[in-house]
Each structure stands twice: as C-alpha cells, then as structure tokens.
Amino acid sequence: MTGGVEAAPLRSSDAERLAAAYSRNRDHLAPWEPARSDRFFTSAGQREAIDAKAALVEAGSEVPWVLLRNGQVVGTVTITGIVRGPFLNGHLGYWVDSELTGRGIGSAAVAFAVEAAQDVLGLHRLQAAILPHNSASQRVLDRAGFEEIGVARAYLRIAGRWQDHRLYQRILEPPGAAAVRE
C-alpha cells in the first residue's frame, strides 16, 4: 500500500496484536466508534470479536483486513453488510493508528478495499457513513471517488450517543462494464 503498510486478511492469530493496537489507540478512536467495554481491549476480547467475524466471513457478508507495518497492527479496513442479488452492496469502515494519520495510509487502505470490492467481491456499490465533523475521513472518501448522498439522522450510536452521519457511496465498475453500457 504505502509507508511500509500492507493489508492482510484478519486471522485468529491477530488477536494479541489487534488488542495492542486498539489499546494504544483507545483515546484516538473513542470519538469515532461505539463505546467499548474494557474486555474489548484485551486479547481474549479480540479473539471473541474475530471468532464472531469468522461466521460473517464464512457467510460472505463481511471481509475484514488488518493493516500491518513491521508486523504491528496499525489499523483495519473492513467491508461489512455485504448484500448480493440485485443490490451487490457493502459498507466500508476503516481506521489508522494515531501515530500514522496524515501519511496516506487511510487513502491507500480505502483504495485497496475499493479494488477488492470491485475486482474480487464483484460488488456494484460501496457505502460509507462518517460523522459530520470527521473532516479527515471526508477527505479520504473524496479522494477515493465517493460522493455524498445525504445525511442520516441519529444513524449510529457512537461514543455513547446516537449521532448523525453523512452517507457516501461509490458506484463500482466491473472490468469491461463501460464497454457493455455503450
């Protein structure tokens, strides 16, 4: 990707280093994520979360990756809520370690996920929801070709309260789609 960071599929063996990453970034992520129990920040809590995701991966409704730098987890990027059929849609989520923000890693992670959604998963659309005051994520999505499609009132319970979110989408073009439409 960039800056010596690579994306790798989330595995059960990532629990300890993912717990370390979440612990290291607890304050950094708190304003942007749901309220978390203390257990979430432990290896056991992450192992439980990874095991829960494994069922969703098996069902084809989620694809999670860890962002690694020198063997250390420095973020995640995930496509969740994948719906097949005529919708072919997924929801994008990501975060980057506080020590590495502003270095293009978030943009590279989103570009990676867009490519995987289009070329590997065969999705037609990716959506993302961000807090209105998260200007850094707005810039990442803008650079990645997402367009704002509206505001969802009281959309997600983040940092302990229901908060509005700006909704974004990117329509994905499978290889050769433009030629088919012409």
Describe this structure in words.
The chain is an alpha+beta fold and 182 residues long. It has one domain (5-181): 3-Layer(aba) Sandwich (Aminopeptidase). 34% of the residues lie in helices and 34% in strands. The chain contains six helices and seven strands, in the order βαααβββαβαββα. It has helices at residues 15-24, 26-29, 43-59, 105-120, 135-143, 177-181, and strands spanning 5-9, 63-69, 72-83, 89-96, 125-130, 147-158, 161-171. A seven-stranded mixed beta sheet has the order 1-2-3-4-5-7-6, sandwiched between helices. A hairpin with a 2-residue loop joins strand 6 (147-158) and strand 7. 27% of the residues are buried. The model has no long low-confidence stretch (mean pLDDT 94).
Briefly, what is this?
This protein has 182 residues and is an alpha+beta fold. It has helices at 15-24, 26-29, 43-59, 105-120, 135-143, 177-181, and strands spanning 5-9, 63-69, 72-83, 89-96, 125-130, 147-158, 161-171.
Topology:
Blueprint: E1 5-9, H1 15-24, H2 26-29, H3 43-59, E2 63-69, E3 72-83, E4 89-96, H4 105-120, E5 125-130, H5 135-143, E6 147-158, E7 161-171, H6 177-181
Parallel strand pairs: 4-5
Antiparallel strand pairs: 1-2, 2-3, 3-4, 5-7, 6-7
Helix pairs in contact: 1-3
